[in-house]
């Protein structure tokens, strides 16, 4: 029997339904949730950035102790085009002070690191939550449409403030002038806010967290190139980049505080754009519709190795291109090696690598720096195992006739082969750049041999990562501590006067400094065996524990 409902009853029922929650409903709860999620990640970011800049400032303070040494540095920095491209135009180096030298060394790199932190964290709390469908569950609980984005912006902005305060305190601890230090901290905060806005926009446009992060990263790369072109001579081009605006604050060199205004306004405009875009799309979807994929998967994706390659190919291409461009710049300035070594402080820094000609010492240091950067690729690709496991994407793969060993080895193969590719391409770029400047092709093969010699040390870090995933999965991100320790002990051991036992912790300490030194088989073999041992131990741990 059908029951009829009168129009009056129907309208009363509609009025009794819950109304649309306010746009910021649930903001406080989401903010507390994000703080809890990042209770370990946020302190690591803050400590890493502040610690890195503090160590860099300490090295500068320790290297340049007299006006003559400061003048030597200023002459070299202002004369070399490649150094300008990476460090900036050298504000304050006409009459160099210790603060101006510190800014020339760390300012642009600080902007880049802080920008990366802000982009990663904002995407993590916005687009990544939608991609994993957790945002849909949260929104079902009466949470406002803009509450998630607002909470993420406030939380990441707070971390940005903490970083800026930490940087200010670290430079004040070295006795640098208060005004310049405050300008450095303020402009770092403002730059971070700009890239919070950039990430807020890309998180609305992209269809996945990886695409959102990649879009923000490409934006950062374009801004860096515009700033570099402007600093190399076309001055107005630098004003197309927020990084160009930020460095124009001239910390420790007649500060210009008005530079903060366009940075803050740009951040506000970008954040407003992110809010507007979020109202014009469905939850979980990007601003632009994702094109449909093929009806059937390619047969080349039928194995775990093929799947790992497919997931990691974008990362491999990005790291290869980035380090190749950096290697080419390093190679181009190889002809400045003798002039650099006229500075006693720089000569002492290169001397820790070994004994050789100025060009060989410079190339050996360049190869070491490239390997330390490449360790980021090596560790991140292995950590993808933990990411797939945590996101419950590993279980469907292992539910098929695929063993855990096959699954792990697939990712390790991609990491090892990708590491070799990144190092070889970077080595060729360094060799070609130096050959073009020195009109001497004889260094190409020695540099190529030097980068290949670094591979066993990188594989040790990969093995350490596997061991952590196998036995201490919750602490797997500590693999990044291995990268940080290796960088500090390899580049700043002499400056910080570290004892030998701390230097021996880094696998790079045991690699011969080619081409300044000759190849040694024993340490290379031992490093390879250590990498194999750590990997086998990690595999045993993964086989013994529950997945997920």
Question: Which tags fit this structure?
Answer:
single chain, 548 residues, 72% helix, mainly alpha, 0% strand, 25 helices, 2 domains
What topology does this entry show?
Blueprint: H1 7-16, H2 27-37, H3 41-63, H4 67-79, H5 81-87, H6 98-125, H7 127-131, H8 134-139, H9 147-173, H10 178-205, H11 209-231, H12 242-247, H13 260-278, H14 304-332, H15 337-340, H16 344-351, H17 358-390, H18 394-399, H19 404-438, H20 444-453, H21 455-471, H22 479-491, H23 493-496, H24 500-503, H25 521-544
Helix pairs in contact: 2-9, 3-6, 3-9, 6-9, 6-10, 6-11, 9-10, 10-11, 10-13, 14-17, 14-19, 17-19, 17-21, 17-22, 19-20, 19-21, 21-25
Write up this protein.
The chain folds into 2 domains: 23-289, no CATH class; 298-548, no CATH class. The protein contains 25 helices and no strands. It has helices at residues 7-16, 27-37, 41-63, 67-79, 81-87, 98-125, 127-131, 134-139, 147-173, 178-205, 209-231, 242-247, 260-278, 304-332, 337-340, 344-351, 358-390, 394-399, 404-438, 444-453, 455-471, 479-491, 493-496, 500-503, 521-544.
Biggest beta sheet summary:
none
Q: How many beta-strand runs?
A: 0
Helix-strand pattern, N to C?
HHHHHHHHHHHHHHHHHHHHHHHHH
What percent strand? under 5%
Helix percent reads over 70%
Tertiary shape = globular
Low-confidence stretches: 1-5, 13-18
Domain module count: 2
Number of helices: 25
As a whole number of angstroms, the C-alpha radius of gyration is 26 Å
- Average pLDDT confidence is 85
**SS-derived structural category:** mainly alpha
**Distance from first to last alpha carbon:** 52 Å
